[in-house]
Sequence to fold (665 residues):
Amino acid sequence: MKYDLPTKEGYYGEFGGKFVPEILIPVLEELEEAYEQAWNDVSFQKEYRQLLNEYVGRPTKLTYANRLTDHYGKAKIYLKREDLCHTGAHKINNAIGQILLAQRMGKNRIIAETGAGQHGVATATACAKFGVDCIVYMGAEDMERQKLNVERMRLLGTEVRPVTSGSQTLKDATNEAIRDWVTNVEDTFYIIGSVVGPHPYPKMVRNFHRVIGDETRSQLAEAEGREIPDYLLACVGGGSNAIGIFYPFIEDESVQMYGLEAAGLGANTDQTAATLTIGQPGVLHGSMSYLLHNSEGQIQLAHSISAGLDYPGIGPEHSYLHKTKRVNYKAITDGQAMEGVKLLSETEGIIPALETAHAVAYLDELMPKTSKDEIVVLNCSGRGDKDMTTISKNL
Amino acid sequence: MIQTENRVTQLFERHDGSEKIMSLFLTAGYPDLEATVDLILGFEENGVDMVELGMPFSDPLADGPTIQYSSNVAIEQGITMKKILHIVEQVREKSQIPIILMGYINPVLRYGAKAFCEDAAEAGVDGLIIPDIPIEESGILKEEAANNGLPIIYLVAPNTSDKRMRKIDEESQGFVYCVSVTGVTGAREGDEVAKSVERFINRVQKNVTRNPKMVGFGIKSYEDAQRIAADMDGFIVGSALIDTIRSHYPEKGWKDEVFAFVRRLKYGKE
Fold:
C-alpha cells in the first residue's frame, strides 16, 4: 500500500484543509513554502538533527520491558522511551523543529497554547535556547491543575497568559492563540503542539515527530533482527506522539496499530474525550476532523484524567486512518489509565505520564491475543512527574 | 433564477451613492430570544439597510470578546439553527430588509449543507458569510448555496495579495466584505483603523471591480464610518452595537437607546 498523504491542499481523504479566516491564508501559504524549503534543505536537516542529538538527547532508547513481558507471558514488549527526551516528553522534537523554522522565516515573536503544559514547556524551552520572546496561552483551570509546568515555563522566561473564556481549558487557549495570531500576523510564529490545526501544521508536526518511528525501526532491527514489530501502541489526544511512531510503518501492512484515546468516565458518558469512538466529523481550529459536538454543532467539553488528552478534536490524519481502518482506535477510561500507571511503575520502574498510561492499559486487552514470537512496541510518550498530584489523588 | 430577485443585489442596484449603505451585525438570540425580531424591525425603521444575523458558535475564533460574549449568552439561552431560521421567517412577515446569515461552518455542516441552504432560502435569507471558509474550502457549500440562490460573500483582508483579491472578487456574490484591520472583530480606539486602512482601500478599489464593497471590523461611530468607508459602498458595525445593547439591557427603554445609537451611526445625529 502506497501512502502519500496529505494532498497538496492538505487533505487526508475528506479530512484536513485550511478552515481559517482570510487573514491567515497568506500566512499559511508563506509557512508552507518555508517549511517545504527547509525540510528539503540539507543545512536545515543538519541543524535539526544536531539539536535532537545534542540537546534533546536522541536517539531515545528502545527498552525491552522484561518484567512487563513476563507479567503477560505472551509477546515481547518494548518501550520507545520518549520520556527520556529533554523536558520529559516527545513534544520537544516538534518545538525544536518549529523554532528553527521561525528563525529561518525571521519571526521573532513566538506564541503557543498548552493544556497539560508539556507543549508549553517544550516551546518555552526552545525559545529560551534561542533567546526568543514567547507567550503561552493556557486555560485558567489548566493553570491551576498543572502549577508545576506553569512555574517551569515562567522560569524559562515565558509569559503564561491565563485564558478565562469558555471552558478555561485547551480548547479555549487554542482560540485565544489563534486570535493573537490573527492580530499579529506580521511578526508572530504560532507553534502548534499537535498534529491538528490548518494545513500545513498536521503534516509539519508529523514530520518533526517521525523520528520516533524511524528510530524504532533501526533499533528493532538491531535488537531483534527485524525492523517491523507486530503491534504498535500509542496514546492519542491530538495525536502527535502516535503519528510520530505510526507514520514510518503505515505502508507495512503486517503492523497492527492501536491508538488509545481517553474515555474519561466512559465513552458513553458526557465526561469523555473519546473523539474517534463517539465523535462526528466537523470543523474546529482550522481543519475537518472528528469532533465532540452536539446536534447543533456546538463543541462539547472533553474530560480526561489526563489534562493532555482532554481535547474535543483530533488530528485529521488520525481521522483518515480511523475511517480507512488502518489504525484501530480504542477508548480507555480514567480508571484503566490509573491501573496502567501502577503496572508500568511496578514492573519496569518507569512512572508514565497519564497520557502514556492509556496505552499501557490497553495491554490487558491486547496481550492475551498475542503469541510469544511476536513483538509489541509501546510509545512511552512522556514521564509522569507532572501528573504526580493527580496520580496520588486517585491511587 | 432566484438570484436576480435577491434583496442584497437589489439593495446595491438601488443605491445611488448619496449616502453609505449601513449593515449591522446582530447575534441571533442576543440579548434574549424574543428580542431579535423586534430589533431587526426597529433597525430598519431607524435607517439600517442590511442585517447580518450572527449564528452563534461555541468557539468563535475570529471574534473578539464582545461577540464571543453575545454568542455565549445566546447559546446558553437555547438558540438553535432552527430558531435562527424562524427569526428570519418572522421578520419576513413584515419586512423585506436584506438578511445575511453570518457564522462558522461547523454548525452549518452539522445541520447539513443541503438542508441548511434549502431551509435558509425558504426562510428568506439573502446570503451567507462564513469566515472560516476561504475560497479554497468553499466546495463544501458552494453548489448547495448556488442551487438555492444564496450568494456566498467572501472577505478580503489587508494582507490579501492583489492577485488573490481579484480571485475573491470572482468568487464572491452580493458584495465583498473588506476586513479593515488584521485582528479579530471588535471596536477599536481612536485612529487605529483609519491609519492602516488607506493603502488597503486603494488596493481594494483597484482589484475588487465586479462586486460592491463593504468595509467592516473596528468601526464604532458615524465619524469612523464616514472616514473609513469614504471610497466604499458602505460599512458594517457589529461589536459597537452589541456593546450598546449590553450597556442598556434590560433597563426600561433599552431598545430606544439602541435605536438612537443606530440613527447616530447612520446620520451622525439622532
Observations:
- The two ends of chain B are 40 Å apart (CA to CA).
